[in-house]
DNA sequence: TGACTTGTAATCAAATTAAATACATGATCG
DNA sequence: CGATCATGTATTTAATTTGATTACAAGTCA
């Protein structure tokens, strides 16, 4: 099991839109960079748009960020592309036996722990912004010896 | 997407073995409480045994915990049943375009963030033991008005 | 108008999960 | 010793999910 790549692709899209802001960034161009097809990119862009993270207009190439990259956290992206629902990172077996002390209580006993674990993971994502990712990319690039 | 219920079922199994320690706990009995089939229970028990969390012997009904329940964390169970591999909670799109600044750097730039998020979630699981779950079950039970 | 774009629906193949079945092997007891 | 019950494992099946693909409607603009 793994969390859908829609999330990391979403981050890729946002970072590239910003780094390529002098040019028009089409879904075709993004798809090439991500190495997938433009349909998937448009689907994800639709979700990012709905969440108010980017601005795109039908028929017009060139998406823009709707906010400063330092105001977009990875958690915002994660929520926007809807990869994990609230309290649903972990699966619980349903219809455990009511006649058993564990069966009738395990759900309520373990759920708070699972929630806390999920929230802790999400909190980490909230501490990092698209700007941080962009800066890291640019810094790696400058240190790489590339011209 | 969600993390396999093998994890929460594993916790259920351990808690029930301990709470039922005066009797012999068979995979059949456990399957009834979890509401699944004995085969799945045995598969998970095999993993718990391999990880040194329980003691089971072929042909003999009655599994026992191999350690004190206060020495078994939910993280131990999570690792034992192998639901999420190290650094693989999140998916990354493979073969991003090397000719693009984002394509050639995004993997290395985002991976540390994803690792940190996963580790943070796992750390939370490490803070809770089977004993904590058992206590909570017993406490809920006593507060429920059940005789 | 024609070329290019976004938006969206529908279909398809691959991978994963848990359920189910079958059977070999070990233990126990009459 | 042989019947019964247990664990250990392999295999198959059905359901679900993911991403790839195809198709096409509708917007933009030279």
Task: Tell me the layout of helices and strands.
The structure is a homodimer of 147-residue chains.
Chain A: H1 6-19, H2 27-34, H3 38-50, E1 54-57, E2 60-65, H4 74-80, H5 101-126, H6 130-142
Helix pairs in contact in A: 1-3, 1-6, 2-3, 4-5
Chain B binds a DNA duplex (30 and 30 nucleotides) through helix 3 and strand 2.
Describe the structure.
With 147 residues, the first copy, chain A, is mostly helical. Chain A has a domain at 6-85 and 129-142: Winged helix-like DNA-binding domain superfamily/Winged helix DNA-binding domain (Arc Repressor Mutant, subunit A), CATH 1.10.10. In chain A, 55% of the residues lie in helices and 7% in strands. Chain A is built from 6 helices and 2 strands; from the N terminus they run αααββααα. Chain A has helices at 6-19, 27-34, 38-50, 74-80, 101-126, 130-142, and strands at residues 54-57, 60-65. In chain A, a hairpin with a 2-residue loop joins strand 1 and strand 2. In chain A, helix 1 (6-19) packs across helix 3 (38-50) and helix 4 (74-80) packs across helix 5. The first copy, chain A, is elongated and about 65 Å long. The first copy, chain A, starts with 5 loop residues before the first helix and ends in a 5-residue tail after the last helix. The model of chain A has no long low-confidence stretch (mean pLDDT 93). Chains A and B meet through helix 1, helix 2, helix 5 and helix 6 of A and helix 1, helix 2, helix 5 and helix 6 of B.
């Amino acid at each position: 099991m793994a969390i859908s790549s829609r999330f990391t692709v979403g981050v890729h899209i946002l970072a590239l839109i910003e780094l390529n802001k002098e040019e028009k960034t089409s879904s075709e161009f993004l798809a090439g960079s991500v190495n997938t097809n433009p349909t998937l990119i448009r689907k994800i862009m639709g979700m990012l748009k709905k969440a108010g993270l980017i601005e795109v207009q039908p028929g017009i190439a060139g998406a823009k960020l709707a906010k400063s990259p330092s105001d977009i956290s990875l958690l915002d992206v994660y929520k926007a592309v809807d990869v994990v629902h609230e309290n649903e990172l972990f699966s619980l077996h349903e219809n455990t036996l009511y006649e058993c002390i564990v069966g009738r209580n395990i759900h309520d006993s373990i759920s708070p722990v699972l929630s806390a674990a999920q929230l802790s993971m999400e909190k980490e994502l909230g501490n990092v912004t698209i700007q941080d990712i962009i800066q890291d990319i640019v810094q790696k690039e400058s240190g790489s010896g590339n011209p």
